[in-house]
Amino acid sequence: MVMDLNKCIGCQTCTIACKQLWTRNEGMDYMWWNTVNTMPGKGTPRNWEEMGGGFRDGDSQPGLMPSTTDFGEAWEFNHDEVFYNTGDSKTHLKIKGEKPQWGPNWDEDEGGGQYPDNYYFYLPRLCNHCTDPACVAACPRKAVEKREHDGIVVINEDRCRGYRFCMEACPYKKIYFNHKRKVSQKCIFCFPRLEKGVANACARQCPGRVRFVGYRDDPEGPIHKLVNKWGVALPLHPEYGTEPNVFYVPPLAPAMYDEQGNIDHSRPRIPDDYLVSLFGPQVLDSLSILKAEREKSRQGQSSELMDILIAYRWGDMFGGFDQDPSTLQWT
Is residue 35 assigned to a domain? Predict the structure, then answer.
């Protein structure tokens, strides 16, 4: 998957599409396999970038296991009181019990920088279905598997015994623990849909046409072109050593202002150092390519890259996974 961060508006449609389809069962109330967090921010689980895991020079790195508090526990609201109370017209929706201290989007839209040069951008995240997944290497039960024919990483819940070494090992902290069923659970990349030729729920329902889906070794597909041919789509935290298969087109930003309030194009609003910390040094080349191709398009010249990213035809975004789900027989 490739996600164009220049088009994400943080609407959370992808998040709800995933939630409604995959995490509505017992013990999954606090799980959000897909999240969209504001950057810079602490993300979910809180401060996940500081929790370790992954590999360095081929060696496993120690990692912390996030708690449900770090993820943000599911909040319970007074729905019955609001919807069915006939006596007090002033009753309003509120959280029941103790006031929470954190949630999946606790720092939404806060960002960084100082006015008038403050900034933020949205970062959608899901399991990266890595080429060298740390979760697979960490599981002593061999319950975490990488499917050979498509590369999707899944958890065999019949084998899982809830040791949660996978949660510690994953540097992206995208594995949850079901405290009711005592098994680990995570994004399955909508493989039942893909097997029917239907794109992932998060991708197909995205109103901003942010997400591209396909096989990286398909030379005519969008993933190959964005990652291999143009080199503008990059993995998040490549230094974690797991070789993620979810990539990002890095965000461009408006120009800065100088002390007199005039536009200053010489300085990036989103600091280069920050983007390098997320996507590695190649991000600077990626931004240069994006700016050059954008300028070509502005001058009326053709640009394959801009045509791909604008996504005039939504079906072209999904590398052949463009089947209409309403036409299929589901079991």
Answer: yes
**In the chain, how many domains are there?**
1
Q: How far is CA 321 from CA 38, 80, 187, in A?
A: 29, 42, 18
Q: What is the extent of the structural domain holding 245? A: 2-77+101-327
Q: Which CATH number goes with the domain that contains 182?
A: 3.30.70.20
- Tell me which DSSP letter residue 318 carries: G
- The 10s digit of each residue's pLDDT in 69-93 is 999 988 899 888 888 876 667 788 8
How many H-runs (helices) and E-runs (strands) does the chain carry?
A: 11, 14
- Condensed to tens digits (0 to 9), the pLDDT of residues 127-170 reads 999 999 999 999 999 999 999 999 999 999 999 999 999 999 99
pTM: 0.95
Structure tokens at 199: 């794109």
Is residue 288 a part of any domain in this protein?
yes
Residue 298 lies in a domain: yes
Classify 137 as helix, strand or coil: helix
Helix (H, G, I), strand (E, B) or coil at 126: coil
* Per-residue pLDDT tens digits for 56-74: 999 999 999 999 999 998 8
Domain-embedded: residue 294: yes
